[in-house]
Amino acid sequence: MEHTESPRIAFLGLGVMGSAMLRNLAAQGYAVSGYDVVPAAMERLADTGFRRAATPLDAARGCDVAITMLPTSSHVRDALFGADGAAAGLNPGALVIEMSTGDAVETDRIAADLAALGLRCLDAPVGRTPREAAQGKALPGQQ
């Protein structure tokens, strides 16, 4: 069942952690588009029903939320602001959830650059393993 009033989500970075998270979002019925520089990463998710995007910009078009799960802050900056960057395709006021393990100072700069475009940013680096990502469970005591 698709969430008709839920936000449309762009997911950038479909490696071990990102693919597990995208699977959980798709299983809950969210409309998810995804992009990864490695085509095989997207192919492994074909059974989820996500929309395979050609670029970060393509993934983000018309989305209310973008989630980044990338190796470094420079990868995040490129995915958001580089050629075909996602920031240009997001809806006004969209939220970028930055989940990469990156440099805190650069993450703050990215957040400021997003704010200058009228976009919001939440710094939410992951602190668990691929197993927890695949299970899609909240931390003990959280809902």
Explain how this protein is built.
- There is one protein chain.
- This protein has helices spanning 16-27, 39-43, 56-60, 73-81, 104-116, 130-135, and strands spanning 9-12, 32-35, 51-52, 65-68, 95-98, 120-123.
- It is an alpha/beta fold and 143 residues long.
- The longest helix is centred in the last third of the chain and has 13 residues, at 104-116.
Secondary-structure element order, as H and E? Answer: EHEHEHEHEHEH
> What's the β-strand tally?
6
How many DSSP H or I helices? 6
Strand content: 15-25%
Class by SSE composition: alpha/beta
Give the overall pLDDT as a whole number: 90
Taking the sheet with the most strands, its summary is: 6 strands, parallel
Overall geometry: globular
The strands making up the biggest β-sheet line up spatially as: 3-2-1-4-5-6
Low-confidence stretches: none
DSSP helix fraction: 25-40%
Beginning-to-end CA distance, first to last residue: 21 Å
- CA-atom Rg in angstroms: 14 Å
Brief synopsis:
With 143 residues, the protein is an alpha/beta fold. Helices cover 35% and strands 15% of the residues.
Key attributes of the depicted protein:
143 residues; alpha/beta; six-stranded parallel β-sheet; 6 helices
